[in-house]
Design goal:
globular; mainly alpha
Length: 269
């Protein structure tokens, strides 16, 4: 059933994102052609107009792409699960977890595709074939080092960390919306307040942990002793894994509370 939900989700959102991607790539090709003409010293009224319009359109589409992603993240979750459509969605033969996963996976995939589209568009405009070959060569070297103990592994960990932060952020928004729907009035305002409150609580917990350590100098000495003899790469790996675990735990907690609220405390009035 999750596959059907994802198919429905991508079909509904693809009507917005795919035209944006197509427009972005077309504008980037036109910009590359325009830059080729300007290097040949073709200074005309048309080239001057295009020189003003094309970069503006390119920037507007890039901004619109990520703004739409953010809006869709909130709208699809709120409208489909917490609005009138929720009466239908929660009668489907699928678990609450499946409903949350379908929204989360769609947002993550569209965000990744938006980043790829933006990178490809910039590549079309600014890179030559020799540059592309060099980039692919560097990517190949990185892939070869992924399973070794080196900076390649740290780079992969950095990507995983960014993904964990992003997923945790999305689930924090979902949890805030789930808390906001508990109110009979001003649900969006309550959701905003819940989002602020969640982040304040997280920050206070972190500060409490730091304060609870007590003697910071003793703690720093203990950490230095534990890391003694390790290389920079090993220390980097430990730090990255620690941050990944922190955000993964956050994401799991957000997910479980959201699922509980949508299962036991759903208020569609």
């Amino acid at each position: 059933m999750l596959s059907k939900l994802l198919k429905y989700e991508f079909k509904a959102t693809g009507r917005i994102f795919l035209p944006l991607y197509g427009a972005l790539l077309i504008i980037s090709v036109l910009e590359r052609i325009y830059m080729g003409f300007t290097t040949n010293h073709m200074d005309t009224i048309v080239s001057t107009i295009l020189g003003a319009i094309l970069p503006t359109l390119f920037g507007a589409i890039i901004v619109a792409m990520f703004v739409v992603t953010f809006i869709m993240m909130i709208q699809r979750f709120y409208k489909n699960l917490l609005g009138r459509e929720g009466y239908l969605m929660f009668t489907l033969p699928v678990s609450t977890s499946g409903l949350i996963w379908s929204k989360l996976i769609a947002v993550v995939v569209w965000t990744i595709l938006s980043i790829i589209a933006a990178v490809l568009a910039f590549g079309i405009i600014f890179l030559n074939m020799s540059d592309v070959s060099a980039i692919f060569g560097q990517v190949g070297d990185l892939v070869c080092k992924v399973f070794g103990i080196g900076w390649g592994g740290a780079a992969v960990e950095a990507v995983i960390l960014i993904l964990a932060i992003f997923v945790s952020g999305i689930l924090c928004v979902y949890l805030s919306l789930a808390i906001g729907q508990l109110s009979s009035k001003r649900k969006i305002l309550c959701a905003v307040g819940a989002y602020i409150g969640i982040n304040v609580i997280i920050n206070n917990v972190i500060l409490a942990i730091i304060a609870g350590i007590g003697d910071m100098e003793l703690f720093q000495n203990a950490v230095a002793a534990a890391l003694h003899g390790m290389s920079e790469i090993q220390i980097t790996n430990i730090v990255m894994i620690g941050f990944i675990l922190f955000f993964v735990i956050q994401a799991v907690v957000y997910f479980l509370i959201t699922r509980y609220l949508l299962t036991k405390k759903l208020n569609l009035e």
